[in-house]
Amino acid sequence: xxxQRSSQLFxxxxxxxxxxxxxxxxxxxxxxxxxxxxxxxxxxxLFDEDDNRYIDYINSWGPMILxxxxxxxxxxxxxxxxxxxxxxxxTALETQIAQLAVSMVPxxxxxxxxxxxxxxxxxxxxxxxxxxxRDKIIKFSGCYHxxxxxxxxxxxxxxxxxxxxxxPGVTAGTAKDTLLARYNxxxxxxxxxxxxxxxxAAIIIEPVAGNMGCVPPAxxxxxxxxxxxxxxxxxxxxxxxxxxxxxxxxxAQELYNIKADIxxxxxxxxxxxxxxxxAARAEIMNHLAPIGPVYQAGTLSGNPLAMAAGLxxxxxxxxxxxxxxxxxxxxxxxxxxxxxxxxxxxxDYTINRVGSMISVHFDAAPVVDFQxxxxxxxPRFKKFFHGLLQGGVxxxxxxxxxxxxxxxxxxxxxxxxxxxxQKVSETL
Length: 428
Ligand SMILES: *Cc1c(COP(=O)(O)O)cnc(C)c1O
Fold this sequence. Notes:
single chain; alpha/beta; Aspartate Aminotransferase, domain 2; 16 strands; globular
């Protein structure tokens, strides 16, 4: 494939946009090479500025679960656009999508819409702090909750139980309120709670981690967190920005039958427009302004175009009784095919999968947390990525990302993908 126009566009973009991109992972820094500029997308396919076609396994990092340019979503947005694009007043549409979301997701009475997953997680944590009158939170290494200050934290050194900033610009003052725990390690969480008695407002977690590749919760791990939270008056925040409306109608809460206290959403809930949301039972949500003391706001929050796209998306998912089963089956087919190829080639690998979240790690040992995820063979992943790209298959340009499966994929597309993987496996 040739990328002449993409390369030219990247040179131009770099002049006026830092690194040429508006979000760092798009920049191909982890895999090398020049990012590809897309022109359009339809169903399971992306088409770039040089008119190359790719089967898309990023799907805008999750939202396009029904495929690109889905007619229900496109129609809804086009119709709404003609009525005006933003009012800064309430609209009936917001209540409609809120009612639907509350009916689909367990354990929530009220929901507030924001503009991104970052905002949703940031606001969920503020709400938890306001509700509990405590300052500290526990997050897990390798979990991503957006780029707000409290989450850009790495584990402190040695015996210190508090985190340290992992980006310049995050203050030590902020970092000291975020404690880092190892994913799937209940003992570590217990230790942190004991070292900070009655100071922890919330534990925030991706119930299935998707930002260190896919890392499922170990048997009993989420249940253990739930009971620790109950014992210590801590709120359990499920960051379902990736898992929500993907693993099941009711997300990971439904799949694992665990009640979270606050749930954050993004990605699928916006149907490809910039939307996030957070939700909880009424007792907690009523702490929010304007009825409660915890401030939270947004000029474009609940924007009619975004709500129209989100509503069309949620309606489509809600009405399709087989959608999550179909997604699971397609992903299982892909998984089985990759197992066969890797085993035949005797490549060291691990595949993690929950429903339509899947990732291939180039290491034979189980991947259960950030440390084990980081052991993957990165040079091999780079080859894998670029080989697939050349073969017309677009996976995320980082070994730390989940593949996102869309219902628009046909079994022919999956076979095409497996063929491309077969070919690239011969070069690994
Ligand atoms: C993508 C993601 C976010 C951040 O959402 P943005 O819309 O990019 O701000 C937060 N949490 C999880 C689990 C995510 O996957």
